[in-house]
Each structure stands twice: as structure tokens, then as C-alpha cells.
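quick one
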Amino acid sequence: MQIRILTASDVKKALPMPRAIEAMRQAFGQFSAGKSTVPLRGRLDTEKGTTLLMPAHLHESRDMAVKIVSIYPGNPGLDLPTIAATVVALDPQTGMPLAIMEGTSLTAIRTGAAGGLAAQLLAREDSRTVALFGAGVQAKTQLQAVLAVRAIQKVNLYDIYEDAAKQFVEDTRTWPNAPIINIVSNPDTAVGDADIVIAATTSATPVFNGDDLKPGTHVTGMGSFSPDVQEIDEKTVARARIVVDSREACLEEAGDLIIPRATIDAEIGEIINGNKPGRQSPEEITFFKTVGVAVQDAVAAAAVLAEAQQRNLGISVDMS
Ligand SMILES: NC(=O)c1ccc[n+]([C@@H]2O[C@H](COP(=O)([O-])OP(=O)(O)OC[C@H]3O[C@@H](n4cnc5c(N)ncnc54)[C@H](O)[C@@H]3O)[C@@H](O)[C@H]2O)c1
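structure w/ nicotinamide-adenine-dinucleotide:
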């Protein structure tokens, strides 16, 4: 029995953003058509932290995987990351494991790609300016993904830690399609001229004022994932047409929508499948909320594995 082992660097090589966006189209389309099996997330608590088990099987593309995510707040004291993720890709015909891959990089790429897909379907074609809240890991892949679908020229970047924002500018300087990134010191000045607003923060309270959004803006909110937490304010929710990754998951986890008792208009997969419209007018404000669904990991892992096999990335280990 051969298993391919893939590092973070292999995953990044194997899954460029345009391919990842295409993979998310497959994932959400099947998910909203009822062509996937996604059991409830398993949860294992220890005295030091929590481990989550996230399995998914997609019936049409025949992708199957389990992501294992450990959140151990004391890890930085041991010089280890707080969050560690691993994905095991399985063959749905035989149940045999096919690959083990680093999951934090996979998560960042697939989450960014979900935001990119939403921008492709919902942001105005002539979008040029992004307001980006948060300068961490997810913010980077969110921006990469939007750059893959719209000709962005300028980014207004706000992070509560200016050093994080400065590091972000440094890290993205060498991107071939890097836009101009202006660090703003006041969140209120970030949104006014933005065509696309992305919230990719760890904030428990709203990061901008929805009154400041101009008509036609598309908003992606991907940071908050607890029912009592709001990263996006109620004014945005009231002004926007709301699209989610999963109705069920968002009604369970997304305080942004649960607290204001928001009406969800569509799952992104319903738009992909042609059952709901994409952007309906130049003035429409749209809000895509994603909390993450395990189908994303399974489809992304299959795309990584296919490319890795073709390019012989990683190492193949005989387990027998
Ligand atoms: N939706 C999904 O599928 C999904 C997937 C992975 C992570 N997440 C979530 O995304 C969030 C960001 O993750 P990350 O890995 O990028 O974290 P990170 O720690 O690398 O970056 C978060 C950044 O947000 C900044 N921040 C906090 N409050 C802010 C505010 N009010 N305004 C502006 N910036 C602020 C922090 O200073 C930090 O730089 C987390 O909440 C994480 O759980 C969601």
C-alpha cells in the first residue's frame, strides 16, 4: 500500500489559486445539490486543547478525505503552532488511504479560494479597490484569490497591529500581480472607496461600519465562526443580499447572521448550479459568509494529490 506524503510546500506547489477556485466550484456545487456526505464534526477535548475531525465524501467527483485539526492554545510556549492541521485523502471505492498532507496550508488556500469564487460570482466586473481587514494568514490567500478573478489595483489594508500590516506589505511585494497596498490607520477610512471588502480577522466585534459601504460593494466575511461573535455588523447584513457556503453551518456558527436573525438568500452552490442568480444589479450589495465546510478540504486534497502524482511531488511510502 503506497501513501504519498506532502508537505506545506508541496501543497502550495500543487494547488495554484485558479485551480483551487475551480475546485471550490466543484465542491460547493455538489454540496448544494445534495451530492455529498458531510457528517457532523467530531470533537475530542483533552486537558490541553481540542482536536476536530472533519470528514467528507463527494459523490460525483468521488473525493473523500478527513481533516484533523488540533487547537492547543499552550503550544506557542512549546515553540509549536496553536493550530495544526493534517488531511488524509482516501479512496472512496476501497477506503484505502491515498495521501497524508499538511492541512494548514490546504485550509488557507481553500478558504481563500472560496472567497475568490464568491467574488467571481458576486463582485462587480469593474472592481478595482479592495478593503482588507486583517493581515494574517487567511488575509493573504483571500487577497490572492480576489486578484485571480478581478483586476484589482489598490488595497486599503487595516490590522489592529500596524506591524502585522507592514509585514503583509513586505510579504506580498514580490507577487507578480501585486496591487498598491495602502496601510490605513483608521478602519473607517478603509471602506468608502472599496468595491470589495474582505474581513479576515480574529475580531469578536464588527471591524467596519456597514453605513460606509458604497452601493454595489461585495463583502466577504470569513473570520468569525461562533454564534456569539460578529465580525460583520448588522448594518451590512441589513443592506446586503446574503450568500453563504452552507445554510446549516452558518445558522449554527455564524454570529454575524445568527445575532441579527438574518435572512439567507442563497448558498453559493445554488448560484453555481443555476438555481439562484449571481449579482443582480450594479447597485446590489452582496455579503458572502463562509465558516468552512469539509467538502472544501476533500476536493482541494484530491486536486493536490492529482497534481502531486503527475509531478511526483512529496514522497511515496510503502506502508505494507
Ligand atoms: N471560514 C473558514 O473556512 C476559515 C478557515 C480558516 C480560518 N478561519 C478563521 O479566520 C480568522 C483569521 O485566521 P488567520 O489564520 O488569518 O489568523 P491570524 O492570527 O493569522 O490573523 C488574524 C489577523 O486579524 C487581525 N485583527 C484582529 N482583530 C482585528 C480588527 N478588529 N481589525 C483588523 N484586524 C484585526 C490580527 O491582528 C491578525 O493580524 C480566524 O478567526 C480563523 O478561525 C476561517
